[in-house]
Amino acid sequence: MRYMEVVKVTPRGYCYGVVDAMEFARKAAKDPSVPRPIYIIGLIVHNRFAVDELTALGVTTLDGADRAAMLEQVSAGTVIFTAHGVSPLVKQRARERGLHVIDATCPDVTRTHDLVRDLVARDYLILYIGKKGHPEPEGVLGEAPESVYLVEREADLAAIPARYGAAPRLAVTTQTTLSQWDTASLIVAIQARFPQVEVFNEICRATQVRQEAVARMAVGADLTIVVGDPRSNNTNRLVQVAEERAHSPAIRVESLEDLSPELLAGKKRVAITSGASTPSQLTRQVIKYVEDFGAKTRLTIVDDSETSLAG
After folding, report:
1. Which of the residues 53, 136, 146, 202 is marked catalytic?
2. ∠ CA 159-84-90 to the nearest 5 degrees?
3. Residue 136 among the catalytic residues
4. What span, in angstroms and rounded, lies between the C-alpha atoms of 70 and 63?
5. What are phi and psi of 280, to 5 degrees?
6. Could you read off the pLDDT of 118-156 as tens digits, one per residue?
7. pTM of this prediction?
8. Architecture in CATH of 4-14+205-298
9. What is 108-200's CATH topology?
């Protein structure tokens, strides 16, 4: 019988920001004193199974590209702001409507909002590296729309307004869930074009250590499986890291339903990890499936301070 080596990448799965956001929502749903109905403005985290759990508890998730527009659908009750954060405009409109607000913004995202406000107050213009259409940049840019410019890739640099290049005080900062290597390369390109720029790298620690673990532990794997939602930026970046840094073929699966014996056939070494918004039980199910396929589990020892919650 052929045995497969399974590398359970550590750390993986839920980060503390996601754990906190989910717990805020669960507690609200179970607390009869919280005004009803309860709405979440956007996906609490980018994972449909997490959203389904809250739906079963009676929480309504509103989804869309514009959180201020979503808020227009709510006339009473409670609104929960997601881990990705929201703009000051959204907060203001919630107050004006007399809504009860629960803010589940990740502390690392809050730190970026604080940084942007501080820099703008000191007359900086800001280049913000982030993913267009993602809710985190929407919230951060909303802090100072006239002073913050979104950059996603190097090709965007040519379109940056001239006043940014001429600014004596120019800063660059980042979305928290990006690939640290892609971001570093883009920052170098920005520095070459704007020598006066000051760098504030806001990629969060949880994102960094998960990416570094994949880059290190997926080396030599015939396949890396990343468990996570297709809308999760940090999940998609883990696939990218496996392919580009560990040189391992990689796939993203949303759940056990996406796996099949054909995907594992002939593989001698399979690495498994999961995005920071992936519920722990989904990753455990995938690991068990691969192990049951004929694996011997590789025990790993890591010296990282962040504890995996993914099982």
Report:
1. 136
2. 85
3. yes
4. 7
5. -60, -40
6. 999 999 999 999 999 999 999 999 999 999 999 999 999
7. 0.89
8. 3-Layer(aba) Sandwich (3.40)
9. Cobalt-precorrin-4 Transmethylase; domain 1 (3.40.1010)
